[in-house]
């Protein structure tokens, strides 16, 4: 080969190499013997998740001969990676998704619909906890995923601090919580810890409060209804724990990396509103008998239309990409992961709740914390609005509450007008 | 360069005894062939995404259509109308973000340049420890940006951060520890981190530029009785003009487009006071699933940066020819 031919060949190879990224289809082999799975980060670290999941995947291989290649994707990347996969039609076969993304991802049409026949292949609709399945897609459409880990919010309180302050039982109304918080607030100790700079946390609370005030963030047709009086009241009630009741350390306004949990674990705050905090508290050396768990409080005088809701249905769903070349294998894997045995095993490890009814009855979930979480999930939790614009709600309203906490921390008054103006502005941006 | 090599080898071939008869001189194709990979990559990496971005900005590209763009309704200028209409909420927010970014960029670039030029001038003459000092100055530039900014976020925390510890407990400059990552101070925080990250680049370029200033000029100026400031004004800065021209432009473009610093410092939702345009666009497209609007913002920004760059180059070029 002459020099010139060699150069031409090199040029051609380089040119071709830059184009090879344009393939199509899932990463799975066409022989039906492999699957690619993106798991969400449920444990203390990505590595820990891999260690927890691998034995289960080995079990699945033994049962079916299908090898599952797992990648644990951090939460900060998961949505972007899912979007990229949905857009390019190239990616894993099976994925975990945050259940609040269900309707948005459903709208992309990139995921397999779990109609009755498909649900039948993974064990049937009736197996699943109804509240959890309600958070798997828009109402009236076949779910876009099935729930695998379920969670709800609860009120965590420090038993010793409550005893010292002479408070006999955990608060059941927000007025009682504010009252208790004032008694618990003293130098170097605050009544309540919040995650003020975390838009998602803020939005979850905005949702619950709005439900209790009889409000809604979207109407029946899916149109944003941010600036209603109920929503203004809901946002104000939450921010007022810092601005008015002064039971929250102003420093919490910049918390976004779970510092609220650390403050609670380290005795800097007496109460915390969180989803299944037990495993995180354990990791931070707070023994399980040092704190109590109670349902999130309700409004003392519920206004007309106020709902008996004190948590969102939090959790993780499992979805299958439409472009998978191994649909049967993927559904077998979903069935395996939602089987009673795996549900008990994995949810026990992660401190979450099973999303299938038979597993929920397992004694592994009889600990006080899990009992409260399960009761809330079964009786008083509601899914976040299952509309395609849900993530806009979280970003915009969560961001507004972040700004309001920042104002409250610097001593600025929080007025109804200010909240309403911000919410109206945000509402105009939702499409 | 490669073309001269080819021609020379062709010329040599002509003189070789017993070689093939001299061929007709023709355009050598090898250089062009060698350029193809670079051209394809440039097209693939830069130009095509830009064109796709422009196309996206004309579509209503939401989660309903990202899987199959051909189904996305063509809306023409609608996205631009919404984002650039300063009376609409989205337009107002973008304009606010734009002004914040201008202020941030101008201050960051100015400070980076001043610190860079100062350090370069003071390390121009050899002295003991100069090499060490130069290396030390370059460390922020050598550190991975992501990790460095995370450390800054820890230092900026109100209750446990190093900055407030120094300000409140060591220096007693303020009584009440201020917030840095939320509220009005957040713009200060992001400027501090940006300047810290950026000035070593200015320093590096200006240091290289100073190597080219002939010492005779300083000697001549000294004989004429010029002091430090006069030498700086009449010798150093004019000699650095070509370097400055590039450095300032690059600093401007980098700072204006910087995503890592604000994103890592504030997370996905920046405080209003430091709502820089790169994160704003990210928020408008990726977080809210509105890729058409986000692309329209990006294209508008690209147009703005192109105009600024063109005007800047035009002005600096004319000045060079006038000089």
UniProtKB/TrEMBL annotation, chain B:
One cellular component (GO) term of this entry: plasma membrane
Biological process according to GO: transmembrane transport
InterPro entries cross-referenced by the UniProt entry: ABC_transporter_permease, MetI-like, MetI-like_sf
Annotated compartments: Cell membrane
Topology of the protein relative to the lipid bilayer: Multi-pass membrane protein
Keywords from the UniProt entry: Cell membrane, Membrane, Transmembrane, Transmembrane helix, Transport
Transmembrane domains' residue ranges: 32-58, 98-123, 135-157, 177-199, 246-266, 286-315
Residue ranges constituting the ABC transmembrane type-1 domain according to the UniProt record: 98-312
Region (Disordered): 1-24
Similarity-based family: Belongs to the binding-protein-dependent transport system permease family.
PANTHER family associated with the record: ABC TRANSPORTER PERMEASE PROTEIN, INNER MEMBRANE ABC TRANSPORTER PERMEASE PROTEIN YCJO
Record-given protein name: ABC transporter permease
């Amino acid at each position: 080969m002459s020099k010139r031919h060699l150069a031409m060949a090199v040029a051609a190879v380089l040119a071709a190499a830059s184009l090879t990224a344009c393939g199509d289809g899932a990463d799975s082999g066409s022989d039906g013997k492999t699957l690619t799975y993106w798991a969400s980060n449920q444990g203390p670290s990505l590595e820990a998740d891999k260690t927890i999941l691998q034995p289960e995947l080995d079990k699945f291989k033994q049962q079916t001969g299908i090898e599952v290649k797992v990648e644990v994707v951090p939460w900060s990347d998961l949505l972007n990676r899912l979007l990229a996969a949905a857009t390019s039609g190239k990616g894993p076969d099976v994925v975990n998704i945050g259940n609040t993304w269900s309707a948005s991802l459903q709208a992309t049409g990139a995921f397999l619909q779990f109609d009755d026949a498909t649900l039948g292949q993974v064990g049937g609709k009736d197996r699943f906890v109804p509240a959890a399945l309600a958070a798997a897609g828009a109402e009236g459409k076949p779910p876009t995923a099935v729930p695998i880990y379920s969670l709800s919010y609860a009120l965590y309180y420090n038993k010793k601090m409550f005893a010292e302050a002479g408070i006999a039982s955990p608060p059941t109304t927000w007025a009682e919580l504010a009252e208790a918080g004032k008694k618990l607030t003293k130098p170097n100790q605050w009544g309540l810890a919040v995650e003020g700079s975390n838009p998602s946390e803020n939005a979850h609370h905005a949702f619950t409060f709005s439900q209790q005030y009889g409000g809604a963030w979207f109407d029946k047709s899916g149109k944003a209804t941010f600036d209603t009086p109920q929503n203004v009241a809901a946002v104000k009630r939450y921010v007022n724990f810092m601005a008015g009741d002064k039971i929250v350390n102003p420093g919490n306004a910049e918390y976004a990396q779970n510092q609220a949990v650390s403050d609670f674990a380290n005795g800097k705050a007496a109460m915390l509103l969180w989803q299944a905090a037990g495993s995180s508290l354990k990791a931070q050396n707070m023994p399980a008998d040092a704190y109590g768990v109670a349902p999130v409080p309700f409004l003392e005088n519920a206004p007309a239309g106020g709902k008996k809701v004190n948590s969102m249905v939090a959790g993780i769903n499992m979805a299958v990409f439409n472009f998978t070349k191994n649909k049967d294998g993927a559904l077998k894997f979903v069935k395996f992961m939602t089987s009673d045995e795996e549900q008990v095993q994995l949810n026990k490890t992660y401190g979450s709740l099973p999303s299938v009814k038979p597993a929920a009855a397992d004694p592994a979930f009889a600990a006080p914390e899990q009992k409260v979480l399960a009761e809330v999930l079964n009786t008083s939790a509601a899914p976040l609005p299952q509309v395609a614009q849900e993530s806009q709600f979280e970003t915009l309203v969560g961001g507004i509450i972040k700004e309001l906490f920042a104002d409250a921390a610097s001593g600025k008054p929080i007025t109804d007008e200010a909240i309403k103006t911000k919410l109206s502005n945000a509402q105009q941006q939702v499409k | 360069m490669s073309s001269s090599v080819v021609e020379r080898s062709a010329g040599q071939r002509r003189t070789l005894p017993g070689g093939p008869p001299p061929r007709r001189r023709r355009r050598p194709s090898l250089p062009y062939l060698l350029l193809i990979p670079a051209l394809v990559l440039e097209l693939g990496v830069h130009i095509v995404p830009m064109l796709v971005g422009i196309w996206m900005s004309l579509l209503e590209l939401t989660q309903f259509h990202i899987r199959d763009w051909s189904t996305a309704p063509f809306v023409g200028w609608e996205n631009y109308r919404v984002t650039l209409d300063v009376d609409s909420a989205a337009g107002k927010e973008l304009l606010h973000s734009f002004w914040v970014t201008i202020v941030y960029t101008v201050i960051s670039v100015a400070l980076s340049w001043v610190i860079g030029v100062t350090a370069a001038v003071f390390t121009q003459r050899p002295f003991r420890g100069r090499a060490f000092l130069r290396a030390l100055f370059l460390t922020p530039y050598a550190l991975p940006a992501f990790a460095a900014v995370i450390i800054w976020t820890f230092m900026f925390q109100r209750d446990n951060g190093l900055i407030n510890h120094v300000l409140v407990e060591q220096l007693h400059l303020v009584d009440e520890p201020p917030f840095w990552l939320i509220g009005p101070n957040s713009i200060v925080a992001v400027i501090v981190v940006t300047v810290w990250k950026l000035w070593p680049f200015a320093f590096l370029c200006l240091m290289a530029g100073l190597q080219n200033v002939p010492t005779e000029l300083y000697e001549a100026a000294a004989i004429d009785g010029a002091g430090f400031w006069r030498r700086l004004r009449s010798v150093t800065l004019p000699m650095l003009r070509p370097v400055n021209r590039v450095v300032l432009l690059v600093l401007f473009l980098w700072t204006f487009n910087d995503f890592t610093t604000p994103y890592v410092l504030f997370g996905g939702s920046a405080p209003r006071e430091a709502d820089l345009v790169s994160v704003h666009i990210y928020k408008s497209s990726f977080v809210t699933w509105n890729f058409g609007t986000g692309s329209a913002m990006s294209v508008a920004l690209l147009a703005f940066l192109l105009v600024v760059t063109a005007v800047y180059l035009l002005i600096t070029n004319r000045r060079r020819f006038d000089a």
